[in-house]
Records
---
Amino acid sequence: MRKSAPRSPATEPDLGLDPDFTTRILCGFIKSEVRRAGRSSVVVGLSGGLDSSVAACLAVRALGPQSVLGLVMPYRSSHPTSAAHAELVLGALGIIGERVEITPLIDAFSAISRPGSRVRLGNAMARVRMILLYDRSAENDALVLGTSNKTEMLLGYGTLHGDLASAINPLGDLYKTQVRALAEYLRVPPVIRRKRPSADLWPRQSDEGELGFTYDTVDRLLALLVDARVTRRSAIAAGFSPALVNNVMERVVRSQFKRRPPVVAKVSTRSVGWDFRYPRDWKS
């Protein structure tokens, strides 16, 4: 019998998205996970950016506006439009909002720690914001809703115990370009959908400028390397430069520690994080 030729790995990334189906899946996820934790509401940090706006929209669809608290947490160097866009989302969704200026907290930290770089100061801002989110979650018996997307998580582009922290994350399996497509379906205000991605940690900071490549490009590459499981050689054959492929693969490998709980040394038969991951058989 004549053998068929082996199929070559896919070289065209699949970033297609059914927005209606995806929305129903993510809203069901939010509703079930919040209830599973014995809660009825969530707290979300609103930056005025795309990801947090989409996460808030999904939470409102899943739980209702009365069950979503949005925190706007500007620093003195934050661009004025960031808070303005966050408040635009608050008004559009009709959710409870609170504005907390983090400048006094960061200034007090800086006076003691004297961070010597913008990155360290940005990490402090991200972690202070998460402290406030978890404090409000305790006050309201709510869960912190994550806003990090798959691109950021794979590249390690975020602050551990800062913007990468959450109790549940509806966006973690969506690439940035897919979040943008979902934002259009959810009718996130156009001014937010069109703005340049930025964590707004210092003046004129942009995600793509800091990373050195665009989200459109890296999402296509990651979809091949991660989802299609193509090799480095195949990714280069698909048209990506060797330097970019090496850069992205190294980022993914080096940031693995950000995507999992601390590694526990195993000395028993059932260790947390190894064998005992979730007590699903204890409670329906």
---
Amino acid sequence: MQILVVGGAGYIGSHVVRALLDAGHKPHVLDNMSSGNEVNLFPDAELTRGDILDYEALEKLMRRGWDAVIHLAAFKAAGESMTKPEKYSVNNICGTLNILNAMSAAGVSRLIFSSSAAVYGEPSYLPVDEKHRTAPENYYGFTKLEIERFLEWYDRLKGIRFAALRYFNAGGYDPGGRIHGLERSPANLIPIIMEVGIGTRPVLEIFGNDYDTPDGTCIRDYVHVSDLATAHVQAMNYIVARDRSITVNLGSEKGISVQEMVDMARRVTGKPIPSRIVPRRPGDPAQLVASSQSARELLSWVPAYSDAESLVRSSWIAYSRS
């Protein structure tokens, strides 16, 4: 199939493009390269440099008649979203509406959307399933939830079928070493640990060690980016075959604490990974673990690389090349 991957030069997007190529599809990347990395572009996937805020150009590209669109072109820093909501409103919400309107105008009727576990907010029970109430605690999560609501209306009114994939904590790199362009200004745990390991960051700050967890540090559900990429292909196949929309969690269903991830990184890299305990961040829950039962049942999705060692080892291969 001919697939338009919006944001396909980014960290997750490049892995999705790789998975599409591996599955025999023909992806075409649309990216403004604001956070994309040219080293992660594949010669088998054509690139259009463009922005989802340029509606006229977007509509023209959409008229090429794609079998599906995969949308990963969102700003994602939760902390920044609380101080710059305008930036997130314009890009995440207005940009997605441009995509939907251009799809509607061109008769493109399938969309895979990169959503987030941030739509849930503080968990009221674990593991978190798709029936959990949605109450985002940051503006980034709010934009993702609002986009999901727009998708439901466009499904109803315009016949655009969608898969909203609610990621938990993405990490790792292509296990085959085919992708190694690093994220710019990462805010997630694993890349920060890697930066300490290669010496570009002096110390890892651990936000609190007095949580109600076995080692006192926060527990999160980490999912390998290659497992996420596989889920995008499976979700696309699902909505093509079933002609219905779905919303599913993507997580490993296994919690890994901050300290466990640091300990694994020290073993894998052989580096000391200096760390220090700093005060808790407001709003950080002690534990956040997914239920991915729906993804298993609907998509036959089973994570293959989302254990701590695979996450760290594949990341270290990428970072040690830098």
---
Amino acid sequence: MSNIANPMTLEVQEAAANAALEARIMRIMALAVGLAVVIAAPFFPWRVTGGLALGGILSLLNHHWLRSSVSALIMANATNQRVGHSAYRYILRYLVVGALVFAAYRFGLVSLPATILGLCSFVVALFAEAFRQFYIVIIRREEIS
């Protein structure tokens, strides 16, 4: 009988694993943006470096807003509350990101392709996490927690 899993303990472990995953993704995103800006600074014009920095910062901000607005939508749905305010926040983040990129490009402050590359830092973080998970499963032959 001592081998029976406590459901509450499993929920706590799962919540901790999810929090650790989110923290890793944010760290990798920030590292990818910082590395891209540092590498681009001496080799590319300042508009490219600025575009990478702007895109990366907006990517980090967008990821944070996405997490908070989706969790607010889920909580509102679970408690049968109106989702209007949360839904507006979900859409507002696209408008803010788009307006900032458009304004920076229109004023000639950034390179649009570099800004789009900076916005792709989430993709870099997902690939890094996928390689980490493959390493744990294949090389170390452990289960992913």
---
Amino acid sequence: MNLNEDMVFDERMLSQLKVHEGFDATMYKDTVDVWTIGYGTNLEVGLTEEEASVLLEMRLRELIRQLATFKAFNNMAMMTPARVAVLTNMVYNLGVRGLLKFENMWRAISIGEFGVAADEMLDSKWAGQVGHRAISLSEQMRTGKWKALD
């Protein structure tokens, strides 16, 4: 008999594995010295592109929720989706603490001075570290329009 995943998969299976494996949000070495995370996910096996995409989407959605709580977003009608994407891209790369260090950029964003915000992005250690990414994202911040992928 050929196994059909839809016939075999059952939510109880998922629940049972969660209980048996336990959850750990940080990497650890399991009982046979294999790097593991979550519900016993073997990190040495790696991820498929599909798994990595799902993880990326989940993390981006959480970062957007976090960004929405920032004071600079109050009353910002000109904060286009493309500009929010710039900040989401940056927070993904830098973390919340790192993004908060861009005080002059945030000040400019809060008053709708997106050209100044773009200049502040380029005038940073981060811009030197990420190169073309910073140039592309600063242009997207400046215009409020999606930059072609390059």
